[in-house]
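INTERNAL TRANSFER SHEET
From: sequence group
To: structure group
Subject: Putative spermidine/putrescine transport system permease protein

Please process the attached sequence and return the structure record in the designated field. Keep the field labels unchanged so the import script can parse them.
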Amino acid sequence: MIAGQSRGRGLLWDAFTVLVILAVLSPIAVLIFSAFNDGRAFRFPPQAYSLRWFEAAFASAEYRSSLASSTLIGMIAAALSVVIGTMAALPLARGAVRRRRAIELLLLAPLTLPLIVWSIALLQIYAFLGINGSLGGLVLAHATITLPYTVRIMIAAFAGIDPHLDAAARSLGAPPFTAFRRVTLPIVLPGLLTSAAFSFLVSFNDVIVSTFIAGSRWITFPVRLYSQLRSQGVDPITLAIGAMIVGAILLAVLVGELISKRWKRTRA
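Return from structure group:
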């Protein structure tokens, strides 16, 4: 009887897992299949398949410009977030600062407020500084919303390191930066890569902050997509670009997994 109950719970859990997977993957499947629709009207499943909207996406200067802007801003914001977040997380993880909890909560402040409230506050500050609508202002704004994720990830990464390793390297004559570069950095490298990837995706997908801060020159892809949906509805070109972005993300995840496995083998 106990075995039967366990088997029943196992089947129930399997069914629940399948439902969750379907709920997550169904929108992606609809997006990808709809991108190959031959007609302009949104239809799923498509009655005929074509690559015409992918060709139109590559030919659209507006979409290419928006994608380039989002990619550039995301890369710079991610790099800035990783550098600042790593510098902040190291002393916090090792308890080397006073009022550690208060400082950590301050660094996580962007997560505690609605993004629209945070964007309005940034807009007021940027208007006073005269940097609203600039590339630097937009990058800084994106860095503020990605920094909390980097701090949390890197605190967890540093917390798993034995502090005596760094002390041992210093006792052997290594300067502090050399000890960090040769001992600590290789251990936390997976955390750094995860932080960079997560920060880039958060920045790339942002709509609210970019709507408030971006000027006419730096229109990001999500902002252009949102404007397109409001004015003209679902555009098949946006579906094609969305499918390409999904494919690029899946490829990046696959490459990241391969690099991570190879890294673990070399470190073993």
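Handover comment: Residues 61-267 form a domain with the MetI-like fold fold (CATH 1.10.3720.10). The chain is about 80% helix and 0% strand.
Transfer complete.
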